[in-house]
Design a protein that fits this description.
CATH class of the largest domain in chain A: Alpha Beta
Low-confidence stretches of chain A: none
CATH superfamily of the largest domain in chain A: Aspartate/ornithine carbamoyltransferase
Largest sheet of chain A: 5 strands, parallel
Shape of chain A: globular
Radius of gyration of chain A: 20 Å
Order of helices and strands of chain A: EHEHEEEHEHHEHEHEHEEHHEHH
Oligomer: homotrimer
Number of strands of chain A: 12
Helix content of chain A: 25-40%
Largest interface: A-B, 31 and 36 residues
CATH architecture of the largest domain in chain A: 3-Layer(aba) Sandwich
Number of helices of chain A: 12
Chain lengths: 335, 335, 335
């Protein structure tokens, strides 16, 4: 585990911290109309990539714990940030991450950062260079609002949703993380985080994807070890219909790691999710992080059916993040 | 009247609700320096079209009732929203309004949406397809922050301003809604809303515009019925100087419905508002929703004269919207 | 001094007001985790030029005094503002500053405005035409968030930092404001404000810059008068190494007034700040408003050394602005 003040992925929270997060989340969710207890918590959220859902739920999460959250947009085009503290900055980069992180770390008690589209190879980007630089120089805790490898806030919402639906003890629960066809090759942070989060919860995780779409080997191994310790396992299959027994069907598209561009059309028919596929599960709940392309990734009738948990799952983004901010606010002495 | 939780135009509020709104607005306005009473109200404001005035007044309105408002920009370019829940989404639209509305409806107790520039014909756009889809799927009340047909928040501010100037009982008051020349053909939401709002207040409404600039026939008929029930009437004239007796001169440019492009230059001279025209009224107050092109739509000396109510009218945006949010917050059990 | 409700530069605050600001800033800074005392203060911040640091620190400053701050972006491209109230607005400008200022002045108790890149000559722009128009028409106090001539909020943070490091009485303290090479010719608001602020504090100010990079003659004279009254003086030199005895080395690049474009390369070697230069001072603290180009303007080893005050200085933006908003909030009767 990294420094506990840096949340880059599911493994950066202990089991006890996760329990604490869900406890606060559930308590706040049970009284959604109550005025927050005022606190001094100042949260910043810095986006190097666009966001609508995360920025809404993260700002409201800060409000729910009595604090304030300010969203800052830092498109690579508009604010060239130099990651190398030794660089001679006579090009187009105007600020070094060392200064940026130190300054923002003074304005905010907690700093969320989204950065998932670097220019480097997968081997470089998987080290989360931007987020780690912020963590290195900031005096405030850093929370990934989606990096290259993980999306820990989404994972907390996913976990909370499974607990609400299947009970607190998820050990041994059969869940399926299933690839879906999408016109474009998407980042893999969400599937990595669901894989690891459900493994940490002890689920029995099946990962279904076409050949050539392997997830990160190290994260896979980390998840396998965690799942086995908790009463489950991790297994990979290339059969799109290998969903028998599943209680959760987590649908998500991703590209071969580090690649962009279109996905091949010949995968489309086999890998869409429809009622037929859901019928092969054990009354599984269908999860997806949204936005979802209707009738391409998941059919409309599945999304409109009682099998769909996607609305609840998205709503839990706010409550789970409120739990996380409550935890971090306590750690830094504000709450 | 629509579902009371959906405010698309003036007719979506009852007379009693409007009274309640003005009562709260006036009370808050009378103590502008007082700290708000904290509440749990979370308001979202989603803009498909740009805004500066509305976003400022709407955010501050939420703050005035002890809540928070988060502004979200959803330019059609940056967040392609599919309005048809049955669509096969393999094009450039990444999210269906069904999911978007359900998600945002969980984060916020009240959701404001601005969407006034669709691609369809007037017959399609006048049904407010975007706003109605949000209303259909959101669990939270929807407030139009300017649609194609109406701008209900502007109408409330207009009404509040008339009450402050002319007294609470506006029945039979002679008011003029007068077209003005503007370089471009503008949307008609504001004139429609002023027409209907003043008619609902029982005013005697004269609508002046050049031939070919007719307002929506159905809204005109709805206004006429409402005005007659309240002691007034609605009459249309093409004479730019037909302002005798008017106590209000509401100035606004609009284009032939559904059209864009430049307005013909030959209308310019006759349709500008200057001191001569104001002198033909019964000491009318001059109203305009702003922004206004000085010395083109209204002359500078009118705007600087005591006849101008435009500053007060703009300020009332904030107070009237605070009244509206107070009403809706009460309806959803937060306030 | 201007109308006390208009803060365009350091001279628009009295010594007593400045003391009050620092007192509040220091008190708030000493309890950074405490929940703010709720107030009704509504602050607006309107940006005609981009900002990340100022918008973060200014919003958080409002929060620290129990209020709210709303940031509004008004790029000249997206919201053409006409500065002449007599203009016939049939071109591309859609709103007159008279209306804009009156409206925003109703929504907010205090209005911050950033506008430092006008199209006019230095003689025109140095009169701060945008900021002064806002001051003329707004009913609310106006605070420059960086104009053409001054950046008063930066000056307060600079002054607070010097007090924290060198003690409250700065009279006679030898400080150096030193030009540095930068690829582009930058605005001069920050050096002007440091010059005048340190002079008002009674410092003994040396200004070092290459020939042809003179600061504004009137501001220089104003600073000289102020410094002499307080026990110091202002002296200009073109020697980049004239730093002996300095307790502060304030580094900043600027262009010949009113000019843009690249700076000549032949100035680069002599005007960079490195450990050798710092060693020639009297253990001076190195200040810079940030962002700073590492190893071009200031070397990385200086920035990482105990000589660097830049992080503390940037953090003080928030606390100093909270002090300023506290002062203004009191003046308008909200706090």
């Amino acid at each position: 585990m990294l420094d506990p003040r840096v949340i880059l992925g599911p493994a950066d929270l202990t089991a006890a911290e996760r329990e604490r997060i869900f406890e606060v989340a559930s308590r706040l969710k049970s009284q959604p109309n109550t005025a927050p207890v005022p606190s001094g918590l100042r949260v910043g959220a810095l986006y190097f990539n666009p966001s609508l859902r995360t920025r809404a739920s993260f700002e409201q999460a800060a409000w729910l714990v009595g604090g304030t959250c300010q969203t800052l947009n830092a498109g690579a085009d508009t604010w060239g940030l130099e990651l190398d503290p030794e660089a001679v900055m006579d090009g187009d980069k105007v600020e070094n991450v060392a200064e940026a992180a130190r300054v923002l770390g003074q304005f905010f008690h907690v700093l969320g950062v989204r950065s998932f589209r670097g220019d480097g190879s997968w081997e470089v980007e998987r080290t989360e260079p931007v987020l780690r630089r912020f963590a290195q120089y900031s005096n405030a805790p850093i929370v990934s609002l989606e990096g290259t490898t993980h999306h820990p806030c989404q994972a907390l919402a996913d976990h909370l949703t499974m607990r609400e639906r299947l009970g607190e003890d998820l050990s041994g629960q059969p869940v399926v993380l299933r690839w879906a066809w999408h016109p474009r090759m998407l980042p893999a942070a969400v599937p990595h985080s669901y894989l690891l989060e459900s493994a940490l919860a002890g689920c029995d995780v099946r990962v279904l994807h076409p050949e050539g779409y392997d997830l990160d080997a190290e994260i896979l191994e980390q998840a396998r070890t965690a799942a086995r310790a908790g009463g489950g396992d991790v297994r990979v299959s290339h059969d799109p219909r290998d969903v028998a027994g599943a209680r959760v069907l987590y649908v998500k598209s991703w590209g071969p790691l580090g690649q962009t561009g279109p996905n091949p059309d010949d995968l489309r028919a086999d890998w869409q999710v429809d009622m037929d596929l859901v019928g092969r599960t054990e009354e599984a709940g269908v999860m997806h992080c949204l936005p979802v392309r209707r009738n391409v990734v998941i059919s409309g009738d599945v999304l409109e059916s009682p099998h769909s948990w996607v609305t609840q799952q998205a709503g839990n983004r706010m409550w789970a993040q409120a739990g996380l901010l409550s935890l971090l606010g306590t750690k830094v002495g504000v709450l």
